[in-house]
Amino acid sequence: MSAPKKMKSSVVAVVNGLPGNMGKEIAQACLRRGLEVADVALTGANMPKDVTVEKDDGGSVTVNLVGPGSEAETQLKEALEKGRSEGKIVVAIDFTHPSAVNRNAELYVKLGLPFVMGTTGGDREALQKVVADNGLFALIAPNMCKQIVAFQAMMDTMASTYPGAFGGYGLEITESHQSGKADTSGTAKAMVEYLNKLKGGDPFDVEDIKKLRESEAQQAFGVPAEALEGHAWHTYTLKSGDGSVVFEFKHNVCGRRTYAEGVVDAVNFLAARINEGADKKLYDMIDVLKAGEMQ
Amino acid sequence: MSAPKKMKSSVVAVVNGLPGNMGKEIAQACLRRGLEVADVALTGANMPKDVTVEKDDGGSVTVNLVGPGSEAETQLKEALEKGRSEGKIVVAIDFTHPSAVNRNAELYVKLGLPFVMGTTGGDREALQKVVADNGLFALIAPNMCKQIVAFQAMMDTMASTYPGAFGGYGLEITESHQSGKADTSGTAKAMVEYLNKLKGGDPFDVEDIKKLRESEAQQAFGVPAEALEGHAWHTYTLKSGDGSVVFEFKHNVCGRRTYAEGVVDAVNFLAARINEGADKKLYDMIDVLKAGEMQ
């Protein structure tokens, strides 16, 4: 049944953002699902020279880490040329730092290296523009969990189709993330827009999202102890004016594996578009969902 | 601002299903929102001769109850002719019994009495057919809570747009209703269809919906003591294969007021269509939602 898949070129992933937690999780997911991990990756300042990624089934891959500077371009170029000379599709994955988003995107464009951008922040307009202007294959998505993306798309559609359907309802939002996350959940902020359309009346202010960052409150919210260092839990509650009707929507993620799986889906999707020479070049996770090319 | 609304004919509601709990709640909602309640209503066998509906702001309306038999037709016809002679739009509301659905619909068609059918059960195909064949204005909806209808429509859309987006996820459904409700929630059963499309794989069986009908289990589920005699609580849980991601959707209704409000929305919607002489005759709650003619 899977014979047609074998026809595709094999894929090499350059996992920029190693040796971060997300980078490691992604590199492992790539290996688990049959992608090759390039032996070089961009990283931040003051990082080790290399990192070893363990495979689930034993064995490991060592990746040389290249900090900011002129070496970055040279080494990425080498990795790209090496992969291409072997008939492979090379795709960069970016889970680095908000301050590196635009610099890295410009480098990918300069090298003609297709990329999946999972890093949030930076100048998003400039990011979209540099890719669009240069016709590079890229997939940009602030949230790589495909189910959350589907749920967001659904709420967006409901809000546009039935604005005011929850007229007179009150709204409460609580989100919990590992203590290292300083800002408010981007997903929760996006949901506020849709929920405000649904309820009408006085808009809910994103400042009123309840952020949990202390372990005691997080455990009271239901987060298991072993997930305190990496989780993304969200609860949205809509309550009718008289209190007789309550709607509650939750999406609770422990760890980073589901995002890493989504990244591999995104890389495979982009590689398939490159392989077929698609006209469209710039994608997001909705395109991946619609294509149904998911595991 | 509300001047254009005054141009509409006023509306008389025949609240068939009095003196049941739902009928009373609807009659009260009609009076609260400025509709007239007809002084006659169809009821079941062995019911009292009349019922008094209390208004929220004092005062009351007495309604004569007509059991099954030849009197039903005569009295409904009188109510219809009386309302029309006064330039009013008369609409029947049906919250009776599954066994009366088709008989009542045929009577409404015979009299040319537009109706809102909230009673579930009976032969649904025959119900739709008799209305369509005769071009009578009618609104048929097994669930009158507009927010639940919007949520169902959203899940339906998500399932059609992104089938398999929740591939590998497990599903659990728990619903709680007052102990008098013998069958499984129709809303939960409808949701199973959408959720099965989303998760793919082995389909979830409606037989596996967990039904709570005992007060102890209901209160453990969170139902307040004062809502034990009338509530509709639903929780749908989707969990990823590795357990790291959980989605939970809840819609919890205490009492019957939100349904009664939805019925009044439906009656007002249908009266507006009659008033403007719309080409389309047969509607459901999605039409009401889309029209945005809601309170």
Task: Explain the layout of strands and helices.
Two copies of one chain form a homodimer.
Chain A: E1 11-19, H1 21-32, E2 36-37, E3 40-42, E4 50-54, E5 60-66, H2 70-85, E6 89-94, H3 101-111, E7 115-117, H4 124-134, E8 138-140, H5 146-161, E9 170-177, H6 186-199, E10 210-212, H7 215-220, E11 231-239, E12 245-254, H8 257-276, E13 282-283, H9 285-291
Helix pairs in contact in A: 1-8, 3-4, 5-6, 5-9
Task: Give a quick precis of the structure.
The structure is a homodimer of 295-residue chains. Chain A is α/β, with parallel strands linked by helices and 295 residues long. The first copy, chain A, is 38% helix and 24% strand.
Could you describe the 3D structure shown?
Chains A, B: It catalyses: (S)-2,3,4,5-tetrahydrodipicolinate + NADP(+) + H2O = (2S,4S)-4-hydroxy-2,3,4,5-tetrahydrodipicolinate + NADPH + H(+); (S)-2,3,4,5-tetrahydrodipicolinate + NAD(+) + H2O = (2S,4S)-4-hydroxy-2,3,4,5-tetrahydrodipicolinate + NADH + H(+). Chains A, B: One of its GO terms (biological process) is diaminopimelate biosynthetic process. Chains A, B: GO terms for molecular function: 4-hydroxy-tetrahydrodipicolinate reductase; NADPH binding. Two copies of one chain form a homodimer. The first copy, chain A, has 295 residues and is α/β, with parallel strands linked by helices. Chain A has two domains: 3-140 and 257-291, NAD(P)-binding Rossmann-like Domain (Rossmann fold, 3-Layer(aba) Sandwich), CATH 3.40.50; 146-254, Dihydrodipicolinate Reductase, domain 2. Helix content of chain A is 38%, strand content 24%. Chain A has helices at 21-32, 70-85, 101-111, 124-134, 146-161, 186-199, 215-220, 257-276, 285-291, and strands spanning 11-19, 36-37, 40-42, 50-54, 60-66, 89-94, 115-117, 138-140, 170-177, 210-212, 231-239, 245-254, 282-283. In chain A, the strands form three sheets. Chain A has a six-stranded parallel β-sheet with strand order 2-1-6-7-8-13, with helices on both faces. In chain A, strands 10-9-11-12 form a four-stranded mixed β-sheet. A three-stranded mixed β-sheet of chain A has the order 3-5-4. In chain A, strand 7 (115-117), helix 4 (124-134) and strand 8 (138-140) form a beta-alpha-beta unit. In chain A, helix 1 packs across helix 8 (257-276) and helix 5 (146-161) crosses helix 9 (285-291). Chain A starts with 10 loop residues before the first strand and ends with a helix. Mean pLDDT of chain A is 93; it is low at 1-7. The A-B interface holds A 145-147, 150-151, 153-155, 157-158, 161-169, 238, 240, 242-255, 257-258, 289-290, 292, 294-295 and B 145-147, 150-151, 153-155, 157-158, 161-169, 238, 240, 242-255, 257-258, 289-290, 292, 294-295. Strand 12 (245-254) of chain A pairs antiparallel with strand 12 (245-254) of chain B, so a sheet runs across the interface.
